[in-house]
Amino acid sequence: MGRFAWWVLAGCVCFEAVAGVPDAAPELTAEQIVEKNVAARGGLEAWRKVETMVWIGHVETGSAAGARLPFVLEMKRPNKTRFAINAPQQMSMRMFDGKRGWKLRSTNSGKPDLQPYSAEEVAFALDGQVIEGPLMDYQAKGSSVMLEGVDEINGSKAYRLGVKLPSGSSYHMWIDARSFLDIKSERESRNAFGMLTVTKHYGNYRTVDGLQIPFLIENSTKTGKIADRMVIDRILLNPPLEDQVFSKPRVPGQQTVMPMGDDTPRMADRPRGPGLSEIPGRYRPNLGSMPGSGNAQ
Fold first, then answer.
1. Which of 9, 12, 46, 295 is spaced 20 to 30 A from 252 at the CA atom?
2. Are the beta carbons of 198 and 31 closer than 8 angstroms?
3. Is 114 exposed, middle or buried (0-12, 13-18, 19+ CB in 10 A)?
4. Which domain range does residue 183 map to?
């Protein structure tokens, strides 16, 4: 379960990028590419209005069983996140309140196990760039962007941009030369096993209240083989999210309740398959007409 939770919040996709011919794509500066990217995604002012965002969907694993694991990812500016994923008879959660983080998982004993984020996980989360990514409004964030080259990814030309954050960490972003939408991102991270490359590959863009948002994020191994797919079924824009949602959860000593929502059932009562019962109570009622829910087109 920890593997799924880590790649969803961090991203874990690795597609081969082959050096392309620079003159095969329009010669633009890094600033011009970012401007076109921002416009293609819906515009800076529209994104600035998004204070909170919720993704509801499922992870499709690369296992022979082809498991579909329902998830809910809640995000709030500037970098608060809460991610919950459900597998048969087991659940896992990760929460970050902007300064500290926690990992919560069910165990065979029935008592939830709660652990704090490591120093590496905190540093990674602080630079998470939730809601909009590292390119949107990058100058106001104190970041810098440079054009590193033009690559070919899955037959399409893409501008490769290097983004340096104020913390010193960096991203690599690939922007499609035709649509100017993000198609890949990459950053370095350190965990208990050492340094690893965290990569995302974006697809199936849809319009949600005027914003272009990918509804598919794929994860693959170092060899390029697809391992997991994150499929977003529903996106909510600006739902009310109190800071308490992202705070350290209370874990009763003898209870097996996972604090996933207002009326989440006990672990023993939880259905195995995907469905509304895996959605936190605050989103479950009248989901389709909830204010700010956003209709994908």
1. 9
2. no
3. middle
4. 2-240
In a domain, 256, yes or no: no
Strand partners, 175: 159, 182
Span 153-197, pLDDT tens digits: 989 999 999 999 999 999 999 999 999 999 998 887 766 667 777
Give the burial class of 15: count Cβ atoms within 10 A of its Cβ; 0-12 exposed, 13-18 middle, 19 or more buried.
Answer: middle
Beta-strand (E) ranges in 211-256?
211-220, 226-237
Residue 283 corresponds to which tokens in the numbers above?
């989103």
| Residue at 297 is within a domain | no
Position 254 in a domain: no
Alpha carbons within 13 angstroms on the beta-carbon side of residue 59 total: 26
Helix ranges (DSSP H) in the chain: 2-10, 30-40, 44-48, 119-126
Residue 259 maps to a domain? no
Amino acid found at 291: P
What's the pTM?
0.78
H/E run at residue 149:
strand 144-153
CATH number at residue 82: 2.50.20.10
How is residue 49 written in tokens?
């209005």
Residue 260 CA to its chain's centroid (Å): 18
- What domain count does the chain have? 1
CA dihedral 219, 274, 92, 59 (to 10 degrees): 0
Q: Tokens 């416009």 label which residue?
A: 39
